[in-house]
UniProtKB/TrEMBL annotation:
Name of the protein described by the UniProt record: Histone deacetylase
A Pfam family hit: Hist_deacetyl
Signal sequence residues: none
InterPro entries tied to this protein: HDAC_classIV, HDACs, His_deacetylse_dom, His_deacetylse_dom_sf, Ureohydrolase_dom_sf
Lipoprotein keyword on record: no
CDD domains for the chain: HDAC_classIV
Domain of life according to the entry: Bacteria
Record carries keyword Hydrolase: yes
Annotated keywords: Hydrolase
Domain called Histone deacetylase: residue spans: 18-290
Amino acid sequence: MLKIAFHPIYVLPLPKGHRFPMEKYELVPQQLLHEGTCTEENFFEPVFPNEADILAVHDKDYVDSLKNETLSYREARKIGLPLSKKLVEREFLISSGTMMAAEYALKNGIAMNIAGGTHHAYTNQGEGFCMFNDQAVAAKWLQKKKLAQKILIVDLDVHQGNGTAEIFQNDASVFTFSMHGKNNYPFKKEKSDLDIELENNTGDEEYLKILKETLPRLIEQQEPDFIFYLSGVDILATDKLGKLGCTQAGCKERDRYVLQTCYDLNIPVEVSMGGGYSPHIKNIVEAHANTFRLAQEIYF
Protein backbone atom coordinates (compact mmCIF):
# COMPACT_ATOMS: atom_id res chain seq x y z
CA MET A 1 0.00 0.00 0.00
CA LEU A 2 1.15 3.54 -0.79
CA LYS A 3 1.89 5.36 2.48
CA ILE A 4 1.80 9.15 2.54
CA ALA A 5 2.89 11.43 5.38
CA PHE A 6 0.38 14.12 6.30
CA HIS A 7 -0.28 16.08 9.48
CA PRO A 8 -2.86 18.86 10.02
CA ILE A 9 -0.02 21.14 11.12
CA TYR A 10 1.28 21.08 7.53
CA VAL A 11 -1.41 23.72 6.87
CA LEU A 12 -0.68 26.88 8.89
CA PRO A 13 -2.41 30.23 8.34
CA LEU A 14 -0.30 32.88 6.63
CA PRO A 15 -0.86 36.63 6.29
CA LYS A 16 -3.28 37.56 3.51
CA GLY A 17 -1.50 37.90 0.17
CA HIS A 18 1.55 35.81 1.20
CA ARG A 19 3.08 34.23 -1.90
CA PHE A 20 3.62 30.79 -0.36
CA PRO A 21 0.66 28.56 -1.37
CA MET A 22 0.13 26.91 2.04
CA GLU A 23 -3.39 25.77 1.09
CA LYS A 24 -2.02 23.20 -1.35
CA TYR A 25 -1.10 20.93 1.58
CA GLU A 26 -4.79 20.69 2.42
CA LEU A 27 -6.12 20.60 -1.14
CA VAL A 28 -3.87 17.83 -2.49
CA PRO A 29 -4.99 15.18 0.05
CA GLN A 30 -8.60 16.31 -0.38
CA GLN A 31 -8.32 15.86 -4.14
CA LEU A 32 -6.71 12.41 -3.84
CA LEU A 33 -9.48 11.27 -1.48
CA HIS A 34 -12.26 12.85 -3.57
CA GLU A 35 -11.22 11.15 -6.79
CA GLY A 36 -10.50 7.79 -5.13
CA THR A 37 -6.76 7.71 -5.85
CA CYS A 38 -6.26 7.32 -2.08
CA THR A 39 -8.26 6.35 0.97
CA GLU A 40 -7.72 7.50 4.56
CA GLU A 41 -5.71 4.31 5.07
CA ASN A 42 -2.99 5.60 2.71
CA PHE A 43 -2.18 8.52 5.03
CA PHE A 44 -0.17 8.41 8.24
CA GLU A 45 0.59 11.16 10.75
CA PRO A 46 4.27 11.66 11.52
CA VAL A 47 5.27 11.77 15.17
CA PHE A 48 7.72 14.22 16.68
CA PRO A 49 11.27 13.12 15.78
CA ASN A 50 14.22 12.56 18.03
CA GLU A 51 16.05 15.88 18.01
CA ALA A 52 19.36 14.02 17.67
CA ASP A 53 18.31 13.04 14.14
CA ILE A 54 17.83 16.70 13.22
CA LEU A 55 21.18 17.54 14.84
CA ALA A 56 22.89 14.92 12.68
CA VAL A 57 22.42 17.46 9.85
CA HIS A 58 21.80 20.88 11.43
CA ASP A 59 23.93 22.85 13.90
CA LYS A 60 22.64 22.92 17.47
CA ASP A 61 22.86 26.71 17.71
CA TYR A 62 20.67 27.05 14.64
CA VAL A 63 18.11 24.51 15.87
CA ASP A 64 18.01 26.22 19.28
CA SER A 65 17.51 29.63 17.69
CA LEU A 66 14.47 28.28 15.85
CA LYS A 67 13.01 26.62 18.93
CA ASN A 68 13.58 29.71 21.06
CA GLU A 69 12.51 32.11 18.29
CA THR A 70 15.75 34.04 18.59
CA LEU A 71 16.67 34.28 14.91
CA SER A 72 17.74 37.74 13.84
CA TYR A 73 15.39 39.77 11.64
CA ARG A 74 17.67 39.11 8.66
CA GLU A 75 17.80 35.34 9.32
CA ALA A 76 14.02 35.11 9.67
CA ARG A 77 13.48 37.24 6.57
CA LYS A 78 15.58 34.84 4.48
CA ILE A 79 13.24 32.01 5.46
CA GLY A 80 10.25 34.05 4.33
CA LEU A 81 7.63 32.59 6.68
CA PRO A 82 6.39 34.22 9.91
CA LEU A 83 8.36 32.50 12.67
CA SER A 84 6.30 30.89 15.46
CA LYS A 85 6.41 27.87 17.74
CA LYS A 86 3.79 26.20 15.52
CA LEU A 87 5.90 26.78 12.41
CA VAL A 88 8.96 25.23 14.06
CA GLU A 89 6.86 22.27 15.22
CA ARG A 90 5.61 21.93 11.64
CA GLU A 91 9.20 21.75 10.37
CA PHE A 92 10.11 19.01 12.86
CA LEU A 93 7.07 17.00 11.78
CA ILE A 94 7.78 17.45 8.05
CA SER A 95 11.27 16.00 8.60
CA SER A 96 9.77 13.16 10.62
CA GLY A 97 7.27 12.53 7.82
CA THR A 98 10.10 12.07 5.35
CA MET A 99 12.04 9.81 7.73
CA MET A 100 8.99 7.62 8.34
CA ALA A 101 8.15 7.61 4.63
CA ALA A 102 11.69 6.45 3.86
CA GLU A 103 11.15 3.46 6.14
CA TYR A 104 7.84 2.69 4.42
CA ALA A 105 9.61 2.94 1.06
CA LEU A 106 12.01 0.19 2.12
CA LYS A 107 8.98 -2.07 2.69
CA ASN A 108 6.78 -1.03 -0.22
CA GLY A 109 9.18 0.32 -2.84
CA ILE A 110 7.85 3.88 -2.55
CA ALA A 111 6.38 6.26 0.02
CA MET A 112 5.62 9.97 -0.08
CA ASN A 113 5.31 13.13 1.96
CA ILE A 114 2.56 15.66 1.15
CA ALA A 115 5.05 18.37 2.21
CA GLY A 116 8.85 18.42 2.35
CA GLY A 117 11.48 18.95 -0.28
CA THR A 118 12.93 21.71 1.91
CA HIS A 119 16.18 21.79 -0.02
CA HIS A 120 17.18 25.41 0.68
CA ALA A 121 17.89 24.64 4.35
CA TYR A 122 21.62 24.64 5.06
CA THR A 123 23.50 23.12 7.98
CA ASN A 124 23.25 26.37 9.93
CA GLN A 125 20.58 28.53 8.27
CA GLY A 126 17.23 28.46 6.54
CA GLU A 127 16.04 30.28 3.47
CA GLY A 128 13.44 30.11 0.70
CA PHE A 129 10.59 28.76 2.89
CA CYS A 130 12.90 26.00 4.19
CA MET A 131 14.09 25.53 7.80
CA PHE A 132 15.15 21.89 8.18
CA ASN A 133 16.28 19.86 5.16
CA ASP A 134 13.89 16.91 5.37
CA GLN A 135 15.52 14.66 2.79
CA ALA A 136 19.00 15.30 4.16
CA VAL A 137 17.80 14.46 7.67
CA ALA A 138 16.13 11.27 6.41
CA ALA A 139 19.21 10.26 4.41
CA LYS A 140 21.50 10.45 7.45
CA TRP A 141 18.87 8.70 9.58
CA LEU A 142 18.69 5.78 7.13
CA GLN A 143 22.46 5.48 7.17
CA LYS A 144 22.64 5.68 10.96
CA LYS A 145 20.12 2.84 11.21
CA LYS A 146 22.12 0.91 8.58
CA LEU A 147 19.05 0.77 6.32
CA ALA A 148 20.93 2.31 3.38
CA GLN A 149 24.55 2.98 2.49
CA LYS A 150 24.78 4.86 -0.83
CA ILE A 151 22.00 7.40 -1.36
CA LEU A 152 21.09 9.40 -4.46
CA ILE A 153 19.08 12.62 -4.15
CA VAL A 154 17.29 13.49 -7.39
CA ASP A 155 16.19 17.12 -7.11
CA LEU A 156 14.00 18.24 -10.02
CA ASP A 157 12.55 21.34 -8.38
CA VAL A 158 13.09 24.40 -10.61
CA HIS A 159 15.35 25.93 -7.96
CA GLN A 160 18.77 24.48 -7.16
CA GLY A 161 18.98 22.39 -3.99
CA ASN A 162 21.64 24.68 -2.56
CA GLY A 163 21.18 23.63 1.06
CA THR A 164 21.36 19.95 0.15
CA ALA A 165 24.54 20.56 -1.85
CA GLU A 166 26.15 22.36 1.10
CA ILE A 167 25.15 19.69 3.64
CA PHE A 168 26.65 16.84 1.60
CA GLN A 169 29.57 18.67 -0.02
CA ASN A 170 32.11 16.48 1.80
CA ASP A 171 30.04 13.30 2.06
CA ALA A 172 30.63 10.79 -0.73
CA SER A 173 27.94 8.46 0.64
CA VAL A 174 25.18 10.83 -0.57
CA PHE A 175 25.23 11.93 -4.22
CA THR A 176 23.36 15.18 -4.94
CA PHE A 177 21.87 15.74 -8.40
CA SER A 178 20.01 18.99 -9.10
CA MET A 179 18.45 19.92 -12.47
CA HIS A 180 17.17 23.48 -12.25
CA GLY A 181 16.71 26.86 -13.89
CA LYS A 182 20.00 28.59 -14.62
CA ASN A 183 18.67 32.12 -14.18
CA ASN A 184 16.63 31.53 -11.05
CA TYR A 185 16.84 31.58 -7.28
CA PRO A 186 19.19 30.94 -5.57
CA PHE A 187 21.29 33.42 -7.50
CA LYS A 188 24.43 32.31 -5.66
CA LYS A 189 24.36 28.57 -6.24
CA GLU A 190 26.27 25.89 -4.37
CA LYS A 191 28.04 22.97 -6.07
CA SER A 192 26.04 19.74 -6.13
CA ASP A 193 27.75 16.52 -7.19
CA LEU A 194 25.93 17.05 -10.48
CA ASP A 195 24.23 20.29 -11.48
CA ILE A 196 22.37 20.66 -14.78
CA GLU A 197 21.32 24.24 -15.47
CA LEU A 198 18.42 24.88 -17.83
CA GLU A 199 17.84 28.01 -19.86
CA ASN A 200 14.64 30.02 -19.51
CA ASN A 201 11.61 28.54 -21.30
CA THR A 202 13.08 25.04 -21.58
CA GLY A 203 10.10 22.95 -22.67
CA ASP A 204 8.95 19.35 -22.36
CA GLU A 205 10.97 17.84 -25.19
CA GLU A 206 14.36 19.21 -24.19
CA TYR A 207 13.71 18.78 -20.46
CA LEU A 208 12.74 15.11 -20.81
CA LYS A 209 15.57 14.39 -23.23
CA ILE A 210 18.16 15.68 -20.74
CA LEU A 211 16.57 13.78 -17.85
CA LYS A 212 16.37 10.50 -19.78
CA GLU A 213 19.99 10.82 -20.88
CA THR A 214 21.18 11.59 -17.35
CA LEU A 215 19.29 9.54 -14.77
CA PRO A 216 20.02 5.96 -15.93
CA ARG A 217 23.71 6.72 -16.36
CA LEU A 218 23.85 8.33 -12.94
CA ILE A 219 22.20 5.34 -11.26
CA GLU A 220 24.54 2.96 -13.08
CA GLN A 221 27.59 4.95 -11.95
CA GLN A 222 26.55 5.55 -8.34
CA GLU A 223 24.71 2.26 -7.61
CA PRO A 224 22.48 3.78 -4.91
CA ASP A 225 20.49 1.51 -2.63
CA PHE A 226 18.01 4.33 -1.89
CA ILE A 227 16.75 7.37 -3.82
CA PHE A 228 15.14 10.57 -2.54
CA TYR A 229 13.12 12.31 -5.24
CA LEU A 230 12.18 15.98 -4.94
CA SER A 231 9.28 16.42 -7.37
CA GLY A 232 8.75 20.20 -7.41
CA VAL A 233 6.08 21.23 -9.89
CA ASP A 234 7.51 24.73 -10.37
CA ILE A 235 8.90 23.59 -13.73
CA LEU A 236 5.47 24.43 -15.18
CA ALA A 237 5.27 27.28 -17.70
CA THR A 238 2.44 28.70 -15.55
CA ASP A 239 4.67 29.00 -12.47
CA LYS A 240 5.27 32.59 -11.41
CA LEU A 241 8.66 31.72 -9.86
CA GLY A 242 9.75 29.11 -12.40
CA LYS A 243 10.88 30.54 -15.78
CA LEU A 244 10.77 27.12 -17.51
CA GLY A 245 8.26 26.09 -20.16
CA CYS A 246 6.96 22.64 -19.21
CA THR A 247 3.32 21.60 -19.55
CA GLN A 248 1.20 19.55 -17.15
CA ALA A 249 1.74 16.57 -19.47
CA GLY A 250 5.50 17.11 -19.48
CA CYS A 251 5.65 17.40 -15.70
CA LYS A 252 3.64 14.20 -15.39
CA GLU A 253 5.91 12.41 -17.86
CA ARG A 254 8.93 13.54 -15.82
CA ASP A 255 7.42 11.93 -12.70
CA ARG A 256 6.44 8.81 -14.61
CA TYR A 257 9.99 8.39 -15.89
CA VAL A 258 11.65 8.83 -12.49
CA LEU A 259 9.22 6.53 -10.66
CA GLN A 260 9.22 3.88 -13.41
CA THR A 261 13.02 3.89 -13.40
CA CYS A 262 13.13 3.36 -9.62
CA TYR A 263 10.50 0.62 -9.91
CA ASP A 264 12.24 -1.19 -12.77
CA LEU A 265 15.60 -1.11 -10.97
CA ASN A 266 14.03 -2.09 -7.64
CA ILE A 267 15.49 0.91 -5.81
CA PRO A 268 13.27 2.21 -2.99
CA VAL A 269 12.30 5.86 -3.38
CA GLU A 270 10.89 8.50 -1.04
CA VAL A 271 9.12 11.40 -2.75
CA SER A 272 8.80 14.89 -1.22
CA MET A 273 6.70 17.45 -3.05
CA GLY A 274 8.85 20.57 -3.24
CA GLY A 275 7.71 23.84 -4.79
CA GLY A 276 4.85 24.99 -6.97
CA TYR A 277 3.79 28.60 -7.39
CA SER A 278 1.36 28.81 -10.31
CA PRO A 279 -1.10 31.69 -9.80
CA HIS A 280 -4.09 29.34 -10.07
CA ILE A 281 -3.99 26.82 -7.22
CA LYS A 282 -5.77 24.23 -9.38
CA ASN A 283 -2.64 23.97 -11.57
CA ILE A 284 -0.45 23.30 -8.55
CA VAL A 285 -2.85 20.72 -7.09
CA GLU A 286 -3.25 18.91 -10.43
CA ALA A 287 0.50 18.65 -11.00
CA HIS A 288 1.16 17.36 -7.47
CA ALA A 289 -1.81 14.96 -7.63
CA ASN A 290 -0.34 13.44 -10.79
CA THR A 291 2.73 12.35 -8.82
CA PHE A 292 0.54 10.38 -6.37
CA ARG A 293 -1.60 8.95 -9.18
CA LEU A 294 1.51 7.66 -10.91
CA ALA A 295 2.86 6.11 -7.70
CA GLN A 296 -0.39 4.16 -7.35
CA GLU A 297 -0.41 3.18 -11.03
CA ILE A 298 3.20 2.02 -11.22
CA TYR A 299 3.65 0.38 -7.82
CA PHE A 300 0.24 -0.85 -6.71
